[in-house]
TrEMBL record:
Oxidoreductase in keyword set: no
Protein name per Swiss-Prot or TrEMBL: S9 family peptidase
Domain of life: Bacteria
Residue ranges constituting the Peptidase S9 prolyl oligopeptidase catalytic domain according to the UniProt record: 538-734
Keyword Signal attached: yes
Gene3D superfamilies: alpha/beta hydrolase, Dipeptidylpeptidase IV, N-terminal domain
Amino acid sequence: MIYKFIVCMFIVGFALPGSAQNQGKKFTLNDFCLNYTFRTQGITGLRSLNDGEHYTVLEDRGKKLVMYSYKTGKAVETLLDLNDPKYGDVKMIQDYEFSPDESHILIYTNIQPIYRRSFTADYYVFDFKNRELKPLSEGGSQRLATFSPVGTKIAFVRDNNIFISDLRFGSEIQITFDGKFNEIINGAPDWVYEEEFAFNKAFEWAPDGSALAFIKFNESNVKIFHMNMFQGQYPALKENATYPSNYSYKYPKAGEANSVVSVHVYDIKDRVTTPMNIGEETDIYIPRIKWTKDPKRLAIMKLNRFQNRLEILLANARVGSTTVLYREENKYYIAEENLDNLVFTEDGKNFIMSSEKNGYSHLYLYTMGGKEVQPITSGNYDVVDFYGYDPVKKLYYYSSHEESPLEKYVYSIDAKGKKKKLTPTKGWNEAEFSKSFKYFVNVVSNADMPPLYTLYTANGKAVRTLEDNAALKEKLGEYNVAKREYIQIPAADGKTLLNAWMMKPTDFDASKAYPVLIIQYSGPNSQQVRNSWGMDWAQYLAQEGYIVTCIDPRGTAARGEEFRKCTYMQLGKIESDDMIAAGKWLAEQPYIDARKVGIWGWSFGGFMSSLCLMKGNDVFSTAIAVAPVTHWGFYDSIYTERFMRRPQDNPSGYNDNSPINWVKDLKGNLLLCHGTADDNVHVQNAYELAEALVQANKQFDMQIYTNRNHSIYGGVTRLHLYTKFVDYLNQHLK
């Protein structure tokens, strides 16, 4: 999913109250791209302990694991200190997991990334009783190591096969044997599932540890994509000094063959693997598996290829037979964001599911017979996060956009609909609840305030501040910080108002006309215009005399299903219409130079910026497109078909809004930027657009980054990239 990767590029802005104009230090690009001068402080590795009274965090750059009291806020004990020489070569904890009885900790270090979420690492098990830290396995680095519910076993993936380690006997068994690179994957998703269904682990322990359910991906018939890898630098691949190597992996593009998936359950005692019956059709998706509270019943989510029909199958884990527990169809598609809100209640009688069936995303309660009991939430707003259900207080905890699409707050609600807002601070709120639902840590920020970490009781009473980023606020007081103004801009339909913000130069003079740069992403269910904190290069542009505007067109998030799904089957059309209309509106403002309206975007945003420059050639004079999709036939099957169906089903949807098919209308200045090792949006997109521009005899500019992936970083690459942006804007807009 191109949005989830790139969202950090677009959360910009931000003013502190009382910022002095025309005073203070000046920003440099080094501040944002190299030194990260305005990095916020947070809390690393927070985990609630079983008692609900204590939590743990990582400190000393991952060398210490420290336990704190929720009640007092004081450190109680250092559980593990890697500064002790007896722990040998293990120098850092990158993440960790407690065993269910908290007698052991599973840590990992030496991460080697594979794709966005996947990686191999060296896992170690720490025994509290013996104070020993031992490698999980001697057979090579592992993936996804996870304790069983009884804590005596750990399952993990290596070389596309699943292994189980028994801590009691120090033994290790292999339970699958057919794993093979680019053919069979057991217990971990293939590239497109990992990217578009946003998960990494494809196995789950039964609640009593008696079985392990897993998904098998047969990607034998998925076509291979090849990427040249050069020697490069940071890191230098010395083996490629003379001849580049070829990295090949399975990547299903829109309309092409996907992996054939199957679901299996391995019985720990009998050492027998049983396939689950998911039906005869193979051109389907299994985006999630989840055990019910009964160790004999496994829930399997099943989507059709068009992703507009969801079934939850209830499998008998012993014999593999299934029945349909839940079925839903949508005239557009089932939102991927709703797949994670399936929760089975502790009493085994009900489950909770989120759905857009009434036009907004809400929570619903069902019986284990599949009958709807009642909606838990309702109204003309979207529920975003479901944090869980407290069976003692009989309360559901969630976040929503009830007060404003630009803000998010945390609430509790009971079965009768009695609701309580738990987070009073204006802005964008997240929560991490303790296991007992007695406390939660709230992280909130807004345009005027960097992240504030506060401990609350579950009824919304503040206990203490954990981190307020006071040092950052003090540092920002030394600079000119532009003010972000929230506005609304008319959409192309003349009826809808689009949410936007505008940042004016720090020495703004209303009698002058300024160049304007629209920064946007615009992808389905994305959101860039929100009341949250961030600092990046938009501040530098405002300081240098630009007006910067961010706009969410139709098709984006937080305004209900019809708003976000109106772009169905025609990605780019309505969004570009809205962005062109917004550009015209901006050009009419007396303080904006109508000849100097530019647009910038990354990934989906790069698709938009290039399309808008061509389609809106009477509005935009300059565009920067970074890692753009230039034809949706080049992008992956799950993401693209969710919104467009297959190319053979919807040829006009794919062709009518492809920048490649609009090159004849290019009049302004276009800069294309792409990394040659982008496994997500392949450099093929930029190359094919470039060739179309050449054959249309249209001049443009292009910047290629050797061996860089979708985020284009490494060494000073990010500084070089943003310097290129600024130089290009100064040349053509300023």
